[in-house]
Structure formats: C-alpha cells, structure tokens
C-alpha cells in the first residue's frame, strides 16, 4: 500500500482560497467560544481572589469579638491568644460616627488602631497616621477630600449627662487608604486607638474588636476551633471572609453552572467544525476516493484527518489565549466598564486563571474534536470506494 505524505493531502484540500477562508472562520469561532468560557471563569476567580485579599487587609486571618461587646486587653487574654498558631494580634476600638465635610455627612466606622500591630496584620499603608485620621479612597473621591484637609467627626457621647448629644471633633486627614472593597473604602476611618479612647473618655485598653494573623494559613479552620475551645462562649472567632461568605459560595456555584451552560457556545462552534468537514468531504471527495483507489491506505488518511482536527484545536487554543489577553489588558481597562462598587462590592474587575482552568476548557474542547474525528472517520470507512466515486462523478 502507498503512504502518501500528510503534507500532500493538505495541499490538495487547501488549493482553493475558499477552503482557507472557511478554515479561518472555523478556528475563529472555536477560539471565541473557548475565550468566552475562560473569561467567565477568570472573572469569577478574580472576583473571589480580589474580595478575599481586600477582606484580609481589614480583618487579618481571623477576627474575633466578645459576646458582651467591650473587653479589656488583659495579660490573661493575650496569653490565651498567643499560642503556636498566632503570629500577631491587634486590638481595635470601633465606634459608629458621622463624618462631616462641608454641608455633607456620611455614616462611618471609626477604627481606633495601634499602628504597629495593625500594619503588621493588615498590610495596609498607615505610616502617615499621626494625630489625625486616615480615610478610604472612595470617601476622599466622593467628597473631594485631600490629604491635609479637615473633616469633623460626630461621635455619640457615653456620658449620662450628654446623652442625646454628640462629640464633635475636627480632625486633619493624614492619609488615604485603599482597601479594594467599595464599602470599606467609603466607610472606614482610622485613628490612633489611645486618641479615640481619650475622645470617648473610655478606660485605657478597652476594645470591642480583634484581629489575628496566623503562622500557617492552611491551619485556619483548626486554629478557629482551637481558640473557640480555649475561650469558650466569651468570644466569637470567624475567618476573615465570613461577612461575605454567602456571596463567595454563590460565586463558586455560579462558576460551575455557567461553565456548563457555556458549553452550548462550544457546541455551536463545533457545528462550524462539522460544517467545515462536510465541505471538505463534499468538495474533495473525488481526490480522497481516487487516492484510495490508487493505493492510499486508510491509516494514512486517518492520521491526516486526526492531525487536521487537532491542528484546528491547537490553533483555536492559541487564538483564544490572545483573545483572553486582549480582554484582560484592554477591554477591562476601558472607563465605561467600571462597575458600580456599591452594588457589586468591588469597583474593578480582574481576570485570574489557573492551570486547571485551561486544562478544563481546552480538555473538554479536545474531547469534542476527537469525537467528531472518530465519527467522521467511521462514516468514511464504511463508505465503499465505488460508491464514493459514483457520488462524485454522478
């Protein structure tokens, strides 16, 4: 039996420009369908990663509160928290207040912090904090506040004689903080903890919120159970993402369901591949069957057919990577695609794709291609040579 080089079969098929155009359209549609799935998965993974990263910057790895509200930073409590799991601990004093800028006011959460311990846990740049306050970038943008400007904090008085009135303190803006979460960038204001204790006439060392960074993030759940066992019902320990736990779980479920649904787009693009195969089979039937009658064995034809389909798949994968790059580096940066942060939590979208995401999308597409190849080869093998020649010459 003769063994015709695969390259010769390619020359026979693509001798006309129409075949090239059809091939380019087939590869383009196939690549676009895979790029859509990759971008969808990447957006959801990017949303989850960005959200968790921003949450860890304001909550550490573990956050804890006392059942009774306020607590003192006593040595006994610190000794219980300083275990083999903990790396650093920060105690905060959080007070709800109003921030007044000119004639406008905004409900905010004033956080009294210790600069050293809070910076170590959160990773936020709070080095500029002195005797004033740090505000979030969204607050600064909305109310046109710059570093060096003054804002007024309206704090609820804890004195019995002042109930119903507010403590008004004019504070200098020492810096602007970026959390990455819209609500936190809009509502969080930082101040030195001792200064806030003095303003509120609280006892020194009083706190109502704590955050902790642990040595190994893999031990997070075990560390939470450990602290709950040590401190019993006096304190509540939760992971840093707990406030958005429902949203994160919803994103995970939606990522799976949407990825399955988007396989319909792949199926549509696969129909284009089938159409291309039908076009080649119909227009080049004489060449195929004539070569087989002249001695071309079916194994050579099979290798050619599979290599053609795998080639289409490979080129589509490369083109889809280019489309994903353009989407991430160009389209997502366009100003009109900036999403409303007050609705979607984050103001900016980002794309994050792991190796398994590519394996999943490209692997499923390859399976579709291989199935098509074997079905088309099976039909071609079953068709007698005489029948094929008669069909072409009739």
What does this 3D model show about the protein?
- This protein has 394 residues and is α+β, with helices and mostly antiparallel strands.
- It folds into 2 domains: 6-54 and 248-393, no CATH class; 61-239, no CATH class.
- The protein is 55% helix and 19% strand.
- It has helices spanning 6-13, 17-59, 75-81, 115-122, 137-142, 182-187, 193-199, 220-231, 245-261, 263-283, 285-293, 298-329, 341-344, 355-382, 385-393, and strands at residues 62-66, 71-72, 86-101, 104-113, 133-136, 150-156, 166-177, 188-192, 206-207, 209-214, 235-239.
- The strands form 2 sheets. Strands 3-4-8-5-7-6 form a 6-stranded mixed barrel. Strands 2-9 form a two-stranded antiparallel sheet.
- A hairpin with a 2-residue loop joins strand 3 (86-101) and strand 4.
- Helix 2 (17-59) packs antiparallel against helix 9.
- The longest helix has 43 residues, at 17-59.
- The protein starts with 5 loop residues before the first helix and ends with a helix.
- The model has no long low-confidence stretch (mean pLDDT 79).
Q: Radius of gyration over alpha carbons? A: 32 Å
The 3D shape can be described as elongated
Total number of helices: 15
Helical amount? 55-70%
Q: What is the residue-mean pLDDT, rounded to a whole number? A: 79
- N- to C-terminal distance: 28 Å
From the helix content, strand content and strand pairing, which structural class follows?
alpha+beta
**Number of domains in the coordinates?**
2
**Major β-sheet, in short?**
6 strands, mixed, barrel
Strand order of the largest sheet: 3-4-8-5-7-6
């Amino acid at each position: 039996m003769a063994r015709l080089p695969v390259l010769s079969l390619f020359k026979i098929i693509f001798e006309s420009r129409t075949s090239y155009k059809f091939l380019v359209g087939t590869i383009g549609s196939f690549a676009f369908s895979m790029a859509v799935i990759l971008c969808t998965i990447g957006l959801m993974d990017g949303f989850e990663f960005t959200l968790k990263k921003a949450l860890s910057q304001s909550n550490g790895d573990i956050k804890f509160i006392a059942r009774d509200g306020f607590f003192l930073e006593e040595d006994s409590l610190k000794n219980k928290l300083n275990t083999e799991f903990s790396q650093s601990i920060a105690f905060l004093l959080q007070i709800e207040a109003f921030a007044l800028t000119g004639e406008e006011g905004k409900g905010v959460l004033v956080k009294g912090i210790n600069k050293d311990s809070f910076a170590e846990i959160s990773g936020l740049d709070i080095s500029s904090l002195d005797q004033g306050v740090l505000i979030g970038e969204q607050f600064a943008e909305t109310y046109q506040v710059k570093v060096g400007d003054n804002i007024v904090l309206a704090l609820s008085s804890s004195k019995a004689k002042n109930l119903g009135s507010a403590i008004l303190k004019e504070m200098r803006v020492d810096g602007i903080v970026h959390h990455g979460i819209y609500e936190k960038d809009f509502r969080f204001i930082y101040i030195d903890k001792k200064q806030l204790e003095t303003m509120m006439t609280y006892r020194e060392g009083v706190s109502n919120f704590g955050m902790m960074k642990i040595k190994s993030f893999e031990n997070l759940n075990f560390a939470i159970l450990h602290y709950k066992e040590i401190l019993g019902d006096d304190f509540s320990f939760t992971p840093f993402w707990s406030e958005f736990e429902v949203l994160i779980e919803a994103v995970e479920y939606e990522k799976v369901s949407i990825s399955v649904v988007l396989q319909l787009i792949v199926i549509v693009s696969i129909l284009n591949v089938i159409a291309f195969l039908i076009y080649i089979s119909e227009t080049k039937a004489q060449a195929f069957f004539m070569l087989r009658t002249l001695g071309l064995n079916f194994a050579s034809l099979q290798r050619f057919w599979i290599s053609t389909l795998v080639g289409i798949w490979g080129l589509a994968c490369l083109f889809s990577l280019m489309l994903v790059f353009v989407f991430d580096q160009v389209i997502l940066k366009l100003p009109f695609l900036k999403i409303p942060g007050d609705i979607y939590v984050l103001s900016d979208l980002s794309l994050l794709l792991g190796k398994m995401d590519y394996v999943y999308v490209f692997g499923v597409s390859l399976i579709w291609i291989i199935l098509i190849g074997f079905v088309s080869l099976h039909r071609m093998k079953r068709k007698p040579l005489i029948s094929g020649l008669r069909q072409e010459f009739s």
